Amino acid sequence: MISSSDFDQKIDNQLKVDLDNLSRDKGLNKLLKSVIIEVKHYAEDQIKHIKQLTSIGLALSAEKNISKVLEMIVDESRDLSNADGGTLYIVDDDKKHLRFEIMQNDTMKTRMGGTSGVEISLPKVPLYIDGKPNYSNVSSYTALTGKPVNIPDVYEAEGFDFTGPRKYDATTGYLSKSMLVIPMKNHENNIIGVLQLLNAKDTETGDVVAFSTEYVNLIGSLASQAAVALTNTQLIQDLRNLLYAFIKSIATAIDEKSPYTGGHINRVVSLTMMLAEAINNTNKGKFKDVNFNEDEMEELRLAAWMHDVGKIITPEYVVDKSTKLQTIFDRINLIETRFQVIAQLIEDKHFSRKIKLMQNGKTNGSEVKQLDKELAGNIKLLQEELDFIKKCNNPGEFLGDDKIEKIKEIANKTYSFGNMDYQYLTEDEIKNLCIQKGSLTDEERKIIENHATMTLKMLKELPFPARLANVPEYAAGHHEKLDGSGYPRGLTEKEMSLQSRIMAVADIFEALTARDRPYKKPIKLSQSVKIMGFMKKDRHIDPDIYDLFMESRLFYDYAKKEMNPDQIDI
User: Considering the entire predicted model, what is its pTM?
Assistant: First the structure.
């Protein structure tokens, strides 16, 4: 019995004998060499195509810009098939039309759609006409059936309407001939687009030839890769759009809580990105070697959008506290009513004394006049005290110690009602009216400051991808100060990120220049810049960012866009 190894050896020996016999025949030898060379070239071409397809697939998968992906699909397909022109259609969301996305033609020097900046104004191709499938147009036929179409000559082809190409040829002098139309199917086998190549050219003569069957399979393979890459890119873009929509919905919710906060968020985003771009564009100073890449810019933009997200839990009356006595409503109205009651009590007491004098027969005119004079004086004093309280309720001016003493003096006065004595002002009213600067008490200020802590907590719950991992830190750090006196974490200069410093400058300048705050009048641009200068000196904001902000005149560009004309005095 012959073993398998012996059998293999016999086969090898026989092959050697056969090859030796063939080599003695010169004609056969020449033919053999020719076949071998042809097979070698074919194999090399196939290997080249496989490598090219692999390279294209990797490039398509790596690209995240949809416009570039679409452009790459047409570029690479034309390169593989040596096509003069190419058009890419995408199936509309309604599944009823094909829309033009890319149009290219080397002979006509045409590049439209994609990153070209040239819009394609051609009408969409209907997939259905009067409710029936549109098989007359070759692109819609391929989109509906999923079948590739290879046409050697459109002027001799039957079954399709080529009015469009012929009209184009008549207008431009171009000659459309060979055409290859390939469906683009994604990983779910759904057709998402159509790739149409025009006029394949012979690599040696440059003549227009038909697309070979080999190209049908090759371009079909590329179209499948491209469809999957495009679907993935669209999914990523859709997720990104969803994230931004979610962020903007949160900003809208905050806007509903406070009429000005939503506008504040938009303006801080705008100013933050202006500063980041200025840093990217500068070629001198501390930031000459700093350059935020595309991901870092998006990370900063998201942080700016979400920097006040924690305010969603802040009570409205604190966010919008336009006067010192405001809670759910402005309690100055209660004080006004109380003072009206006090005035009535003073008048009642006056009339009781007057009636008593008359009952005792003391109708001397001087005594009555004295009582009336006292009444007028008391009512006048009461009104002056109320006017003073109203003025102190306005947070627009700094409240000095002398005014605080006067508030306490008024508050300690008492009136009697229902056999009970009451002070003119309650303890909480005194506390709020004695706020020296702004409208917030220490407790309310802590409630406001808590929004930064909540921003950090809320954003840390979101599973940001690695390239956006710093969004929570940047967003929550816009109230930190270089000297460590900021909040919520009291970070120092070495601990603060550059992005948080940028947002701090943007947030403060927006707040200073805002024209729609309920608790303060709009201030002049010169005063805003002056305050920022003091903050720079006190190490509350980054001095280098402030200097760039001023030297680049960004402060003025922003002012022209967002401030009232009468605020701009520089």
Answer: 0.66
